[in-house]
Amino acid sequence: MKDKNLTRKIAVTSIMCALALALSYLETLIPAYPGFPPGAKPGLSNIVTMFMASCAGSGYAFFITIIKGIFAGVTRGMTAMLMSLSGGILSTAAACLLFRFSKEKLGYIGIGIICAVCHNIGQLA
Asked: Are 14 and 56 in contact (CB under 8 A)?
């Protein structure tokens, strides 16, 4: 029975990882917003990371974040990988902590906003 749960976790994580990569790629197709800095993206693939942080746990969320960073490096270069990883790891850490300790107080939207701010701070630092 233990193997069945492990197989299910691997399958769900793989599907979520593929979804995050597809959303990350789709974000590159969105044209630049007027008035925003170049490279500003809506962060659609971070929805998958937040979902995994809330449902599956921090290890799975960090795995998806690292895979997204590597994907950014392969498709957009080393600078994109470093920006993705620095912001993504800080954002994922914030999501995991907030889902664990203050999910009821903040809700999903509040946690999403805080994670977006953390992602931007991580990219600027």
From this structure: no
Q: Which of 120, 59, 110 is nearest to 88 (CA)?
A: 120
CATH of 2-124, one of 3.40.50.2300, 3.30.420.10, 1.10.1760.20, 2.40.240.10: 1.10.1760.20
How large is the average pLDDT for residues 80-100?
A: 93
**Unique residue bearing structure tokens 């990219």:** 123
Q: How confident is the model at residue 123 (pLDDT cuts 50, 70, 90)?
A: confident
Give whole-number Cα distances, 89 to 15, 20, 64, 81, 105, in Å.
20, 15, 10, 12, 23
- pLDDT value at position 103? 79
What confidence tens digit (pLDDT) does each residue in 47-76 have?
999 999 998 889 999 999 999 999 999 998
Place of tokens 């800095």: 37
